[in-house]
């Protein structure tokens, strides 16, 4: 029996994505034999409805000196984080000498704007390589995992935080009890804990099963986050859907009773209820759509290969580890994947060992088809690669279903 990491209830598995590698472990040929695998399956808590992985990968295996993901790699995301920072500065950081804390600040993409506004701030970032990039941007970084003990230490030396903010990190943290006790210790009485992560509603609507991988331990819904907040003495006071990363929600938590909840909370909760978002039948239906997408995608790639067409991958995303390993897509079907991230280039993708090349390899290869693994950045990528379609190339997408554009 698997116990819910939030409430201890029974977690019922609804999707098994099989044996999977670490999604961000891009390999040198010499590393291939020692590759780490785990079983990727996802379930729903029968008590609090939280959707979560059934197996936890130790955090040090994922987040370390060589963690390759750079948040600044997308211009759309850079703009998103600049706007988010400016809006928090204007609305929440107006007291004298406010203090802003970010959990998972990565390369400083958001925190640099807060620092430039002259606001006292601190980023928690355990992955040394990206933390160093953040420091080069002029932001203050503590090279630790955020958890109860490290949060308490910061509270003691720096005082309470007016805003604790986090993007694409809270859903990565299985140890929610320690995390939320840490937020409780560090947050000022009237402060807010704001976090944004992929939304279960979008994942179900788009069948974006590639949002499920080792780092994405939780798939949040408004219902499950509200229950989680209440369990730890907080209240969900605002929610806002965001278009980034294929669909996210920004949740705002305050101490229970400290703020009046915005109407958006009840609205989105109602919508989830009407959709049956967290009901077992909905999740089982999602699981069967995943199998259909796998069969369609593999069928298409095999027929293109048999017709002698060339196919390359675009964007060596963490998400693509789930797709390639679940579908069995290797270098025979996708000859290489291009990606702008230096730490991924000239390595092999996790599990399926497809070579990763810099973006100029894409134009040089001039392939017949490009499988868009970074579909969440489709607009940005298609805009900069307009030549590809103009030259007769075609994009392959698999979210929300398999299609050729
Ligand atoms: N906030 C950035 C963004 O939205 O692009 C980075 C997201 S990245 C997917 C997740 C980051 O969280 C990684 O840089 C990782 O090192 C960091 N992280 C993981 N666990 C953490 C924890 N307990 N405390 C602080 N950061 C953590
Ligand atoms: P993400 O979906 O987790 O943000 O990862 C996107 C990956 O795609 C990351 O490795 C960077 C890469 N990428 C490109 O190669 N070209 C681009 O134009 C963009 C936006 C991302
Ligand atoms: Zn639960």
TrEMBL record:
CDD domains named among the record's database cross-references: AdoMet_MTases
Q: What is this protein called?
A: Methylation protein EvaC
The chain positions of domain Methyltransferase putative zinc binding read: 4-63
**Entry-linked Pfam families:** Methyltransf_13, Methyltransf_14, Methyltransf_23
Specify the C-methyltransferase domain's residue ranges.
243-400
């Amino acid at each position: 029996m698997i116990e819910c990491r939030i409430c201890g209830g029974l977690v019922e598995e609804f999707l098994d994505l099989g044996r999977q590698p670490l999604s961000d472990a891009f390999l040198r040929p010499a590393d291939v034999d020692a590759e780490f695998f785990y079983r990727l399956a996802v379930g729903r808590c029968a008590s609090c409805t939280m959707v979560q992985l059934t197996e936890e990968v130790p955090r040090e295996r994922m987040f370390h000196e060589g963690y390759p993901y750079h948040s600044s790699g997308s211009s759309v995301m850079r703009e998103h984080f600049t706007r988010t920072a400016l809006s928090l500065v204007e609305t929440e950081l107006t007291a004298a000498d406010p203090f802003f804390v970010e959990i998972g600040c990565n390369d400083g993409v958001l925190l640099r704007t807060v620092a430039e506004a002259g606001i006292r701030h601190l980023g928690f970032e355990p992955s040394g390589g990206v933390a160093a990039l953040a420091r080069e941007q002029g932001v203050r970084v503590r090279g630790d995992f955020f958890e109860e003990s490290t949060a308490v230490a910061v509270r003691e030396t720096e005082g309470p935080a007016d805003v604790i903010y986090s993007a694409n990190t809270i859903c990565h943290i299985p140890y929610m009890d320690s995390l939320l006790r840490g937020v409780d210790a560090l947050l000022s009485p009237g402060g807010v804990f704001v976090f944004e992560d992929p939304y279960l509603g979008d994942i179900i609507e788009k069948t974006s099963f590639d949002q499920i991988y080792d780092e994405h331990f939780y798939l949040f819904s408004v219902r499950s986050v509200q229950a989680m907040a209440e369990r730890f003495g907080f209240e969900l006071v605002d929610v806002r859907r965001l278009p980034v990363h294929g669909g996210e929600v920004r949740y705002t938590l305050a101490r229970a009773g400290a703020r009046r909840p915005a109407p958006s909370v009840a609205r989105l909760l109602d919508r989830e209820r009407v959709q049956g978002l967290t009901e077992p039948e909905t999740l089982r239906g999602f699981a069967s759509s995943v199998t259909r997408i796998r069969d369609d995608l593999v069928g298409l790639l095999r027929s293109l290969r048999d017709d002698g067409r060339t196919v390359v991958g675009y964007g060596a995303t963490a998400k693509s580890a789930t797709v390639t390993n679940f579908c069995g897509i290797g270098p025979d079907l996708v000859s290489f994947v291009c990606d702008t991230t230096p730490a991924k280039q000239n390595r092999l993708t996790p599990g399926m060992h497809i070579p990763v090349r810099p973006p100029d390899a894409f134009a040089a290869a001039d392939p017949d088809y490009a499988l868009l693994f970074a579909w969440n950045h489709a607009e940005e990528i298609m805009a900069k690669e307009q030549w590809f379609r103009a030259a007769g190339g075609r994009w392959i997408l698999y979210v929300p279903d398999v299609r050729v554009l």
